[in-house]
Structures are given as C-alpha cells and as structure tokens.
Amino acid sequence: MNDDGLGNTTSKSKEIQPEIMHEHKRKRMNVEHDRLSSLPDDLIHKILSFIDIKRVGQTSVLSSRWRFVWTSMPYLNFSSGGRSSLLKFSNIVKQVLSGRNNEIDVYSVKLDFRGKVSQVFVSRILNYAFSHNVQEMTITSSEKQIEFPLSLFNCQSLKNLTLGGSGYRNSLTATSTLELPSLTTLHLDHVTLIDDSSHSYISKCVNLKNLTLEYCKMMGSGGFTIWHPQLLSFTLKFGKGVVKVIAPQLKYVSLYLFTYDDDDDDDVYAVDEVNSLPFFLNGVPLLEEVDICIRYPDDAPKIIKMLQQFHAVKYLTINLEIVECLSSRVRLISNQPSPFANLKTLKIYPAKEISKKVDVSAVVKSYLLDSSPSATLTMVSREEVRAAKNATLALECIPKIRVLLDELKTELDKGKTIMESHEKNLHNDVKGKAKVENQRAQPRMEMPLHSKGSMKQIHSCWKDLSHRISGDQEKVSRIFSELKYVEELLTLIPASKKVKMQAWFVSMCEEAHTLMKRILERVKIGCDMNQNHLSVSFQTLVTKALEPSS
User: 271 vs 318, which has greater pLDDT?
Assistant: First the structure.
C-alpha cells in the first residue's frame, strides 16, 4: 500500500483495496461452500448412504477430492424405481460393482426393484455383498406374487436381514432355507410362509435373537410353526394364519392384531384375530415383557387363553379394548385366579380414540392384578390420548406459523423499499407536469402516442395495487387459518398441558396483529400514491385533449 507521507493512502491503493477484499470474500465463500469435502471419508459415506448409489457416483465430477469417494462406499443402495427398464438398472449395478474398490468391505446393501428380475441378477448383487463381509441387508420387491428362494442367502457375516414385498398384492413367497449362521435379526414383511415338515426357514440361523413378521401369510394344515432355541424377541404385526411358537428362551413378545373381512381382494391386509392369536407351545417361562394390541377384540375365551400363556410376564401392556371385551364377558373369569404371579407393571391404553364406551369391570382388574398386589397399574383414558394428540398437532403448527410470519415480514420489508422508490418516481412525475404544460404547441398527431402511454400508466397503477392486495390477502388468510386451528386445539387440551403453548400462541397473535397494521398502512400509502399517479396521468390526458389543433 502506498503512502503520501502524511499517513494517507494514495488513490491507486484505494483502487486496489476493493479487489483484495473481493478476492478474500471469494476465497472465504469457497471454503464455506466446500466444508463437506473437508469431512473424513467415513462421515461422507454415512451422509451419502441415504441416497441411491447412482446419485452417489455422480458426485465424482464435483472435484478431484470426490472422484473416487463413491468407489469406497461401504453402503450400497440400489433402487430401480422410476427407471424406464430393468436393463438400464442392471447396467448401472454392473458398473457400480465393477468400478468399486474391492479392497473395501460392504457394511450394508439395500435393493429395491420393480418388475421381474432374474435370479442371476439378484445373485450377482448378493454374492458380491457376501464376498465383502456384508452385515446388513434389505431387499424389497414391488413385483406381484414372486417366489424368492432363501437359499440365495448363504453368508457367514450377515447379521441383520429385512426381506419383503411392497404391499399385499406385491408379496414374496419364501422357499427353501436361510443359511445365515451370524444372523441375529430377521424382519419379514409381506412374505408368504408355508409350513413344510421337510425344512424350516430359520433352522440354520443358529444365532437368531429377534424375529418380526409383518403382514405375512402363514400357511399350513396345522398352522405355521416357529421353532428356535435361542430366540429372545418375537413380534407379530397383523398378518394371516395361525402361528405356533416354540422358543423356550423368549423374553419379549409384541402382538399387533385386528379383525377384517376374509377377502383376498381387499387392499387392507389385516388379521382375523379369532383365527390368528398365536400359540406359545411348551410355555415361555423366562418371559419379561409383553405388548398386546387387538383393535377389534370380540372373542373373549381365546383372549383369556392367550393371556394365560403369558403367566410369567413381568411387564404387561394391553389395549383398553381388550379390557372392555373381557368386561362384557366377566362370567368367564369371575371364578378364575389371576394368572400373573410375577407382574410388576400393567399398562392399559386405548388403541382407538373413539369407541363405544364400556365400563371397565372391577372383576377384570382383579383378574389381572390379584396375584401381583404390588404391581403398578397405569391406565390411559381416551380423553388423555386425544389431548396428547391435539397437543402434538398444536406444536406442529407453531413452526408453520413462524415461517408464514417471517415470510410476510420479509415481504413487507421488501415492499417498503419498492414503495419508497415509487414515491421518488411520483415526485419526478409531478415535476414533469410543468414540462408537459409547456409542450402544448407540439403537433396534434403525437397525441395518440401520449394518450396511450398515460392510459397504460393508469392501468399499471391499479393492476399493481390489486396484485399487492391479493398477495397480502392470501398470506394473511393462511396465517389466520393456522391460528384459528391452533385456537381450536387449545380448547381441547387440559389447562395443565397448555400453559407454554398459550404463551407462544399469544406472542404469535400479537406479531400477526402488528403485521396486519403494517399491511393496512401499506395499502393506504399505496392508494394515496395511486391517487397521485392517476391525477398526473389524467391531467396529462386532459392537457393533450385541450391542445389546439395545428
């Protein structure tokens, strides 16, 4: 930097300084923009694991830093959804597997395909994953009613497997046996399971601890049998068919069932609870936690029989509808002892917010608790559930209203700047009126051009004002709609749970009121400005109309 001897920078240095500041700003922005590239590979891989591997591969064009990032991805996410043909999908999979760094293990694989794919294609992906010590795998098919040989899964490293269709009509039929000695968690969703004495699906998964069957069909002449000596947790969500469980080490059971019309064409794949309550053969002596939800229970004898199987349970959760069903048939349990001798806690909650009210019988409470007098009972009413839901809905509205208020405030601040510019232009138009007065001697032939411009200006003024008012009205209507909805929700929430929400609500109402006043003020200023614009424009028209013809 140059100095003139008096401590002042020269004009040349003043010209250079802005360039230096601009360059510094550009470099700082580049650093901030490229913070993702400075992250370690394992963290980048985790971030990229949530997107399709094809998109991950496209990051290679970003910079030299990203050129080979995708080749070491331990998370492979393949999805054919939205692609025009499975041939293109197959080519993409081939390119990924052939271009990947073979020295890097694969941690997880997700494969989601639509349409028919060959067993060779699926085997190529599975074998690659198995040869690279994969630990987690999720395979989902949207094809209608296809068979999936479980013998394709032959891996020493796989610990977690999820396999399923995408809906009732797009289910998988499992065949053969899984050979996964390290598998600890198995989740089957929309899978048809056929009981066959010649094999068991999970007999070779010697370390299996957690099994979930969701929307599955269990088929067999005597029901579908699940036998596993090491199984600790069993979850049955909906589905169809009778399930028999032999698992002496079982500690955790979750059952979610509801009734339905036995029609294979139904879109809703539900359960006929009369025929599908599971049987736990040989007992479950180590049972600790049981969670049972039957949305439409109507067979009290079978419910009682099922509950008696869980006599060793310590923590029991059942839905209120089960208790109401038993309350309507108290004679079935009035002379029976309570089966739960080890119970520590009993939680009863409603599965449905609205239901025909049935008084909970004291006989039912005694049946559930008499053998464990020190057990803690927690009952959640439907009113409490509705209140909690309304409180959640109200809390979800608060950030929406916050965004709407911020957007309106930004729009008003921006509009203020524009309006100030309009006011300046109006001042110039008024000054120009005198100039128009001095141009009366201009030829008559120019009048249509001036008149056209004036009329265009008049139309533009009203159009601009109407557009502004319409835009404000839309934003204000959305804000008021959300505020009104929250107000209605607050009336349904107990006073003890809405104190904090009321404070937020009042604060937002006050802010909305302030913005409404600003809008009215802006509209008034706009009307005044338009009135002045119109006065100038109409005066110009009159002046031109009164000019003497040449």
Answer: 318
